[in-house]
C-alpha cells in the first residue's frame, strides 16, 4: 500500500478495498460485517438510545489523546450521561488526499483500542477521500447505540432545592492542552487532555442506586454553558461556589495569561451530576474510586426551582450571573 492517501483510495476499487481491509477491518475485527452493507445487532428488549457526533479537532494528535480517542470518548459519554449503556459505534472517515497512511493507522488503532477499553464495538463505518485542501487531514463522524438501564433513569424533572452539583474532576484540562499543542501562542505546559470514556464510572454510580437527577458532559462551552442550559431547560437556579471549583494550577496560569475563564473551557473526560444532598458523599466516594474521578468535588447546589439561571458566588460572598459562552473561545477543540 502507498504511504499516503490518494483520491484512488476513495473510488471503491482495489486501493479502497485494501485501505478498508488493512487499516479498518484489521483494527476493529469485524470481518463478517465487512462483507455486507449493514450490521445486524442483538439488543435486549426495551428502549435504545442513539447519538451522533462529528470530530474535527486540531491538532489531530495532542497530549493525552488524538482524534480517534476523542471520537470514542465523546460518543460513549453522550450515551452514558443520558442514562444509557453504550454498546455499539459506527465511524465514518473523511480523509484528505495526501494524508499519511501511518498517521491514519495510528488514529484508527487508537479508536479501536479506546472502544475496547470502553466495552463497545465498532460495527459499521465508511471512508471518503477528498481533494487536498478540502479538509484538515481527517474528520470522523460517529453514531452510538446503547440501551436504557432497566428501572434506572435520569429524571431532571425531580430536581429540587438542596440538590448538589458534582463534577467528576478538574475543569478546563482539554481546552488548555489543545491550545498548548497548537503552539500558536507560545504556551508551554505538560498538561494532558482529560479525554476518556466515562461509562464504567457512571455505571458504578447508577448501579449503586443513587438517584442521579441529571448528568451532562461539559464539552464545548464548558461547565458554565452546560449548567446554564440545564438551569434554563428545567427552570432551576444553580449556585456555584467559586472556591470549590477544582482547577489545575496550569489551567489557572494559562487563563490568567490569555484572559480565559476556566468555566468556559472544554472538557472531554468529565461528567456533571445533580444528586440529592443525602447522596453527596456516597456519590463522591464512588467517583473517586476511578482514575477519571479522582478529583471529584461538589461545586454548587440548586437553590430554587422557579427561575432558570446560573449564579457564581465568590469567596467574598458576592454573586454574579453566568451566561452561555458568547462567541468562540477556542476553535476546533473536538
TrEMBL record:
Organism phylogeny: Bacteria, Bacillati, Bacillota, Bacilli, Bacillales
Any matching Pfam family: AIRS_C
Stretches assigned to the PurM-like N-terminal domain: 37-148
Domain (PurM-like C-terminal): residue spans on this chain: 161-310
Name of the protein in its database record: Hydrogenase expression/formation protein HypE
Matching Gene3D superfamilies: PurM-like C-terminal domain (3.90.650.10), PurM-like, N-terminal domain (3.30.1330.10)
PANTHER family linked to this entry: CARBAMOYL DEHYDRATASE HYPE (PTHR30303:SF0), HYDROGENASE ISOENZYMES FORMATION PROTEIN HYPE (PTHR30303)
UniProt similarity note: Belongs to the HypE family.
